[in-house]
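Ticket opened by: R.M.
Priority: normal
Category: complex prediction / small molecule

The reporter submitted a protein together with nicotinamide-adenine-dinucleotide and asked that the result be attached to this ticket for the collaborator who will pick it up next week. Submitted input follows.
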Amino acid sequence: MAGGARRFPNISPQDGRVLGHVHEATREDVDAAVRAARHALPAWAALPQDERVRLLHAVADGIMARIDDFVAAEVADNGMPAAFARRVDVPRGAANFRIFADLVRNVPTESFAMTAPDGSPAMNYTLRTPRGVIAVVCPWNLPLLLTTWKVGPALACGNTVVVKPSEETPTATALLADVIAAAGIPAGVFNVVQGFGAGSTGEWLTQHPGVDGVTFTGETATGEAIMAAAAKGVRPVSFELGGKNPAIVFADADLDRAVATLARAAFENCGQVCLGTERIYVERPVFDRFVAGMKAAAEALVIGRSDDPATMLGPLISIGHRDKVLGYYARALADGATLVTGGGIPEVDAALAKGAWIEPTIWTGLPDTSAICREEIFGPCCHIAPFDAEDEVVGRANDTPYGLCASIWTRDLARAHRMAAAVEVGICWINSWFLRDLRTAFGGAKQSGIGREGGVHSLEFYSELRNVCIAL
Ligand code: NAD
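Result attached by the on-call engineer:
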């Protein structure tokens, strides 16, 4: 792992404690990491596929063998409840290596027999080759899950990587480097540079001419900056960006299931899930019942220390992010919202007073034009609005520059299919949310992303296709 002379503090979101100091990679460190990745590339790309697959399974085993360490790292850096890290973030980290290791072994490439103009036969076939050195720039909300979602397929396809974790959550990726080395993956295949984004490590990495492609998860505005950096040298990008995901509940839906699931969609991981929903449209006849159910669900959430098994809601990532979310809480009231529940900072014990705690919050009564209904807040909150007709709600759901996902609730099969075709998103859940099959395409429409990852779709970014034509 590269590290310069400058250090920055890693601060606990739970109590404001300084957990440690992290070396901020300099421009020279970034250059050394990219050169190490370039140096390691030919041997890693040439490794027999079975051997690469074996090593990636060893990484997955190594993650699960150290699950307690990963859970502790995620809880400390991010503040997510330990139970959530143990159930979702860390096992998915391991699964991301297994699924892509197995996938690359089983994906065929195409071939076409043809007849040349002179009548002689020829054969075309496709070779899949690594793209090269991949820069992986990650956010803080699900650090191990989101990093491995990119590193797994990148390594499986024979690329080498330089990973820039979020400055908020440096530890899981550092641990991953240990696990990868212990699994026997050669030095230089996986490199980590810690630091910030603009004017720091992230910018230097994405601008580096030795990088052959940039895969990024984070805010849409950051994506614009990275795309500009990648334009120099015409490097391809794969982006998973922000969202303002709608949920739509029709009156015929299983309301109890809708409430239970959409309460997760709004509040899980303290609302810091890209797939989460911050705007819910409910058909008028069941609107009051739905709002009452969501209010009860929000008020039943146990807020507390992330390592307490009873805790359901941890803090936000930082005091800075809480200030931003509280700004939206104030804005909602200024815009005339009805506050259903929450809206402020909860009481926590004195030892946690410096943490980024916040109440789960629900509003009603705002127009669709309000900033609360249009901008990504990334906190434990949602606005619930009534609707009267299918066409109307489709128009309102689609009236956004984003297009990551939607969650539709109805028992009417024909309507479910109509809605799936009508919502402008990359992922549409019917009577469900965050139900992921890792073989499926994942990504956002409109400003929520570029490209798709998941299953064979990941291979489109992490490999190059070479057509070979042989005159016979
Ligand atoms: P962010 O964009 O602020 O930062 C993400 C990463 O980019 C960090 O590592 C940061 O240091 C780096 N970065 C920032 N500016 C940069 C620059 N100019 N050049 C290079 N790197 C730079 O995002 P965040 O606050 O860490 O994460 C939250 C955001 O991520 C939300 O918008 C959320 O919706 C989005 N997200 C999307 C998905 C998805 O799959 N679509 C998944 C998770 C999170």
